[in-house]
Every structure is written in structure tokens, then in C-alpha cells.
Amino acid sequence: MGESALGKTLTFRRGVHPHEGVGEKRATGAKPIEAVPAPALAAIPLLQHAGAPCKPLVKPGERVYLGQKIGAPDGFVSAAVHASVSGRVKGIQPRIIAGGRRVAAVILENDGLDEWDPSLAPLADDAGAEKLLEAVREAGIVGLGGATFPTHVKLSPPKDKPIDMVILNGAECEPFLSADHRVMLEEADAVLDGLRLAARIVGAQTLLIGVEDNKPDAARSLQTAAGADARVLSVRAKYPQGSEKQLIQALTGRRVPSGGLPMDAGCVVINASTAAAISRAVRKGRPLIERVLTVDGEVGEGKNLRVRLGTEIGEAVACCGGAKEGVNKIVLGGPMMGQCAYDLHTPVTKGVSGILLFKDDAPEKPLGNCVRCGGCVNVCPVGLMPLTLYALARKGFYDRARDAQHLMDCIECGACAYQCPARLPLVQYIRAAKGALRRAQAR
Amino acid sequence: MEEMALKRASSSPHIHAGRTVQGVMLEVIVALAPAGVFGVYTFGWRALLIIAVSVLSAVFWEWLYERMAKKPCTVGDLSAVVTGILLAYNLPVTVPLWMPVIGALLAIVLVKMIFGGLGANFVNPALTARAILMTSWVGYMSGSAYQMSVRGVDAISGATPLASQGGYELWQLFVGQCPGCIGEVGRVAILVGGLYLIVRGIISWRVPALMLLTLFVCTWLAEGSAHAGLYAILSGGVFLAAFFMATDYATSPVTPVGKCIMGVGCGLITFVIRRFSSMPEGASYAVLIMNLTVPLIDRYTRPRVYGEVKKRA
Fold this sequence. Notes:
Largest interface: A-B, 69 and 49 residues
Strand order of the largest sheet of chain A: 1-14-13-17-15-16
Distance between the termini of chain B: 63 Å
Oligomer: heterodimer
CATH topology of the largest domain in chain A: Rossmann fold
Largest sheet of chain B: none
Number of strands of chain A: 17
CATH superfamily of the largest domain in chain A: NADH-ubiquinone oxidoreductase 51kDa subunit
CATH architecture of the largest domain in chain A: 3-Layer(aba) Sandwich
Number of strands of chain B: 0
Strand content of chain A: 15-25%
Radius of gyration of chain B: 21 Å
Largest sheet of chain A: 6 strands, mixed
Shape of chain A: globular
CATH class of the largest domain in chain A: Alpha Beta
Number of domains of chain A: 4
Number of domains of chain B: 1
Order of helices and strands of chain A: EEEEEEEEHHEHHEHEHEHEEHEEEHHHHH
Number of helices of chain B: 13
């Protein structure tokens, strides 16, 4: 384990440095989080997580409290959704969420009272692991880094997979984004508390915290909050440092087996904002109704905002001076892995870690040839050969890509396409191939 | 802004490192420039004429082929310019002017375009063209073709450093005071250009370093003197081949281990050809032979995948 590496900057093999180019950490990291006023109308999609959509628990016309559960998880891998305002249910309408999926959303009319659901109560300090896990599940907490995997699922590994280490992911390796950075600075105690609670739930003894070396202030504030409980380790500012598997490799030297999950290496990785949400759920009984996100790119002024879920992204953008002339692309999340939104009416969901506006004026060009520069091989954090996977995927040889070239091990970080001088859509084709194989398997 | 219609919705990543194929080729041209200047300085203005004819005809053939085949024009990526320069650098200054024209036709159309264009050829275009010219017009490409006036060397010298072993001082070879092809004698200039490409991350140090090292060590062991080893790497086209031919993207391995094998293989085959065959120079053939092994090398030097589970026997 990383004992010998204490005090040194740790990292994984290969990767790219988008921070040094177009997407350097902007000034947003130095600005305190501002709260966006609660919206007059909130659209709460019933699918804001990886897994099955929720079933609605409310009917049009019904009155709801702030924090009231309005969507019940359907199955184990699913997460409840809650009212982010108090008021009346206006209806259940379809909304297009990040990534282009159309899902049913509960539309709430805000009465402006912010009346909390009286049934929400904090947990006793000596609550057992099961009670804590139940609180996390009831609060609808998912991974807030962007993957939106339900946190209670992560925290309930099977009996045969003991967890000895809980890792706080404070890497925030996506350029532009600084929401986690601000959360670690301003809510260090809540972040640490959430991490300790997660460790109690899975019964882990070791707590590690990984923060990229471009955020030394966040690392210091976490170390102060951690005291002797946890070690803050510095990891190099490199993409994708915040990918679970790469962070585990950097901090512990362990490797998650191919096709496996962090629990197979005895680890659970929790994002900084997610940890703060766990703390709020347990100590205050507050479900996940808001999140911190970064607005940046072609806007008046880049900021970090605390936004109620269900707020239209346009309202967050308006708080930052509005979009500049000529913006034709909205990215929800970071520029390396974020998904496009179609308009500014898209609601903020749990996985929206950033709203980035871009001007993309590059003319559409036909695909060129791969020049075999090997740049993609040099940067792939997994050790794949993206050029070969791309060639196979373009020809439709998905089976061969999976069996001979480890297609399914791709973490879709996009470092290959970022690097490619021929501008080939490498990760895009790989993603499509993985999707096609998954659909074929499901059938 | 209210009704901002989104013209662009695409799959991530949404930013790019900024490098383009054209940009890479431009940097290669910049890196090749010092050796060309050196060639013109050493052999006179005719060298510049050969380079110009070679570059222009390479671009022309690519343009003509794509026009006839009704394909999008790709001369803008500058790869034809690089091929033209490399071809000229591999010719003696005495060749008639139609030779680079024919050579460029072979390099661009026969080797590159009909296999699918940039990146799809499996042997180095400039070197293959040179090999064909060499076997077709031996008189223009060897022996008396190198009877030329060389700046810094008294009288007209006839023997290339390889033909007359030990005829030159090492420093003379390094600064290019010897006969040879247009672009191969300015070794100090090639080194500068090559180091530039390595620093800029365009080529890997592995191929040139290991090619030179392997040839040096093999010759040292065989001849029993380090001087002979240095003489071997400083004569002929080894420098040009190591930095600009063996590192050609399309025809060299993409994996780090593969690049090492490429370098060692090129050095070893150069040594074998020089020592055991009837040809005085082997660097270009060594690169061509290694080109053919690249698909195999890439297949067996795939990096280890993160978390790969060792297969049980």
C-alpha cells in the first residue's frame, strides 16, 4: 500500500493533461458557492441515476413538503427522488434529461414556504450500520461525480467481499469543474463525516483521501477536518485521475480485476460531494434535494452554484450573467465525459456536476485516416489499443473487439479521442460497440 | 438566448488537445529543414532543385491520383510534402531531374495511395521508391554518382565513407564533410531535427536511440573497436533512417515495446547487411524489412490491460 509514497504525489499510468491546455482550472475554484433561488416550477425526473426509473408516489393536485419522497425506487439498483420545493404537484410530464433520454418528471409548483417534511428526522449518533445504510437509501443518494450509481448499492457489498478501505475521491480531474473543490473547502467537516459514516457502514478500518495536487487548499482543509482518522494523499493533476479504478491504483497500488468492481479490490470509492450528502442524510435527515455545480465556458462569469434539483439549467446560467452570443453547445458534466443538453429547459438532475457552454464553430469534416501515431495507446489509462478497437468497431466486429482486445475494459474516459491528431471519434465508436454488445446480451 | 437552438450535440469528449495531422507534418518538415539546408550548403544549389522537384511532384501525383479516383483531396495534410523531402534526401545530388519525379510517383501512388492513403501503407513510401530507383538505375544511384564536389573536402572525392572504411575522421562525418545523399550527410542537423521531434512528443526516443545503439554495439563487438562502432553509425544513411524513416507513423509499431523492437531490429539488420551482404549500405533496407514485421510486432506487444487476469494454463 501507499505507505512508502507518503508525501509524494501519486498517480496512475498514462493519461492526458487537459488542464494545461484549453480547459485549465478556471477562476471558479476561488469563488465561494452561491445559492440559486428555488425555482417557481421544479421538474423532478423519475430517473436521475444509473438503474431502474422510480415509480411516482404523488398525484397531480397533491400538496408536497420539501424533501418529501415523490418517487419510490423500483428494484435494488435504483434511487428515490424527493421534492426539492414545497408546494403542489402540477402534473407528471415527460422531460428530456442530460444525454437525451426522455423520462417522466414530476412537475412541482413552488409555494415559496420551503416547508420541510415533518417525518424527516436525524438518526441517533449510535445508529448501527443497517440503520445508516437505510438512511442513505431513503435519502436517494447517488454518486454525484457524474456516474450517478446509487450509493446504497455501493455500500452493500456481498458478504464474501470484505471491504477494508474507503477512499474519498477528491480528484475532480475534469477540467473546468471546481464544484467538488469548493465543497471540500467549505464543507470539509461534512465530507469527512460522510466518509466516516461510509466506513462504518461497510466496516472498513482505513480511510484514504485523494486530492489532485492543483487543489492544495482543499487537501489542507480536509486534513484539518480528518485529524488522525484519515490520510490525505496528493495525486497528480492528470485525467482521468478521478476514475475509481485509476484512483485506487494511485492510492493503494491495488488493481481492480478486469471486469470487476472496486469492492473486488477491497475498496469503496466515494466522491466528495456524495460524502457530504451522506452526512446531511444521517445527521439532519435531509434527503438529496440540491447539489453544487460549476457553470463555466461562454457565460458572463463562471461560478459555483448550489442548485435545487429540478431547476432548469437556464436559471443557473442566468445567475452567471447568461450565455454569450453564438453559444451552440451545452455540456452537462465535465468537458471530457459530460453529455450534451438540447436546450436550457433541461432540468438539473443529480449527476449534473457542471453546466458548460461552448461555441463549436469547427466545420464538419469527413473522417480522415488513422495515421498510426500511437498517441491513443500512449494515453489510454487502461492499456488498451484504441486505434485497433476503433477499426474493429467501424467494421462491426464487436465480438472480436471484446474477446481479443478487451473492449469491455474501456472506461470511456475519452483520453484517446482527446489526443487523436486525426480527430477520429475513437471513444465514441468504442462506446457504441459496447452498447451494441450489451443490448445483444440483454436480448 | 431563450430559444437557443442547439446546432451541436455530440458525444464526449468536447475538448481536444489541439494537435492535428497537418500540424504534426508541419513539425516534421521543420525538423527536416536543417538537414536540407546542410545538404544545399554541402552540395550546392542543385540539391535544392532536386528537393523542390521531388516535393512538387509528390504533391502533384497525390493530387492527380485523388482527382482521377474521385476522392477528397488530401494534399493539405502535408504528408506528401514530407514524403517528397525524404525521397530527395535519399538521392545523390548528381541524379537527373526525372528521377525524383519517377520516385515520387512510385512513393505516392504505388506505395501510399493505392493501399488507402496516409497511414494505410505498410512500407515506407520514400524508402521503397529509393529501393526501386536503386535497382532500376544502378548507375545513377551508386558508385560514380557520388563523385561530387563536397564543401570542406579537397578535390573531387569518389568514395563514400562506407566504401572506403576509415577514409574520414569522425568529426568530418558528423558535420557532413563527406559525399553521400543530399539529406543524409548533415548528421548534426539531423540530430537537431530529431531531438526537436522527440522533445515535441512527435516521435518516441525509443526507435532512433535503440537503432543507433544496436548498430554501435554490434559493430564494436564485431570489429573490436569503439571507433569502428562510431564510424558505422556516423556513415551512410543511418542517422536519417533512425530519426526520420524508422519512426514513420504508418510503418512503425504503435506500442512502446514494439518501438523498442523496431529500433533494435533496424540496427541489427543494418549491421548484418553491411557486414555480410555485397551492398555497402543497409540502413534503408533494414527499415523496409522491419516495416513488414510491424503488424506482427503490434499484435504481440499489446500493453498489459489494467486489472488483466492472467489466464490459467
